[in-house]
Amino acid sequence: MEQLENLNVVAQELLVTPDQLKAELPVPDDVRHQIREARRNVRNILDGTDHRLLVIVGPCSIHDVGAAEDYARRLKDLSVELAPSLFIVMRAYFEKPRTTVGWKGLVNDPFLNGTFHIEEGIRIARRLLLRIAQFSLPLSTEALDPISPQYLQDLIAWSAIGARTTESQTHREMASGLSSPVGFKNGTDGSLDVAINALQSVSKPHRFLGINQSGQVSIIHTRGNAAAHVVLRGGHLGPNYGRDNIAQCERALASAGLQRNIMIDCSHANSGKDPFQQPVVARDVAAQIKAGNRSIMGLMLESNINAGNQQLADDLSKLAYGVSVTDPCIDWATTADLLRELSTDLAGILRKRLRSGAKPDAA
């Protein structure tokens, strides 16, 4: 009989089920409480009942679990220091979307050598998330593969849908069922339409094919995710964090009947892919908040222990410690100084913004 299926499939491997992995690496009760509280804090910031600025900060992607844990310990201490004005969440990005080819992240290729031991990658990622969560440090990630959230989402306080996938119906459906608040980035061309459409979609119930905790293919029914917002990251035509851009986004959200919640990604096209421009973007955004803006509720920063980035090499022992292998980052000292500066500059303004009343509705 002539074969009609799997003509380009070389092999298929069975993967550990979410239930099995969670039994192997369970979430302690105290960590469960911390994650629920972190998600509640983010929702309160979105609702305007928590005055703090949400800051998503950390490596562009994690490739070295030891360096990631080192970074997390530093960030935890800083987050406690700045907690009165900033709610800090660490980036723990394990999957990287690629325009063409390249390293696809720790989950897909945990040994950075093209061997693609995905099951071990999921296990390494979950183990690291558990260790960091036990520091009482909230975590964020990009929800890229529609299956992986079943293995990791219970440890995540905030999720992102990236610029390449914001327009994807699959990712909108998936995000409608995520347990964490979620930010949708504008498209890579800088347009707002895809993000606005995504926010309208994700808030509604969906039904789609996926897997359940036992690994069975299932029809997933979601209630919709009300804790979603836009993330401005710039585009092909340049940055979009300026006052006019923010005003345009506010009008688009209001026109669509959506709450005016805007996060600014200080990296990517907003910084011209120059990591040392990230503080410039952050300070401009802080100036807008000081001038009375009430729609900006958060910032994203790409930060690592050491600045810049590096290429993957065949000899992994030659990789510099704490330096990104994907997008270039600002270093720890710059990060800590910038966040302290933002905290000092905005503390009084943010509290006053809360006292003046809850965030205005879309209408």
Outline the structure in words.
- The chain is an alpha/beta fold and 363 residues long.
- It has a single domain, classed as Aldolase class I (TIM Barrel, Alpha-Beta Barrel), CATH 3.20.20.
- The chain contains ten helices and ten strands.
- It has an eight-stranded parallel β-barrel, surrounded by eight helices. A two-stranded antiparallel sheet has the order 6-7.
- Helix 4 links the parallel strand 2 and strand 3.
- Helix 3 packs parallel to helix 4, helix 6 packs across helix 7 and helix 9 runs parallel beside helix 10.
- The protein is globular and about 70 Å long.
- The termini are far apart.
- The mean pLDDT is 95.
Can you describe this structure in just a few lines?
The protein has 363 residues and is of the alpha/beta class. The chain has helices spanning 18-24, 29-47, 65-81, 118-133, 149-152, 169-176, 193-202, 243-255, 278-290, 332-355; strands spanning 53-58, 86-91, 139-142, 158-161, 182-185, 207-211, 217-221, 228-232, 262-265, 296-302.
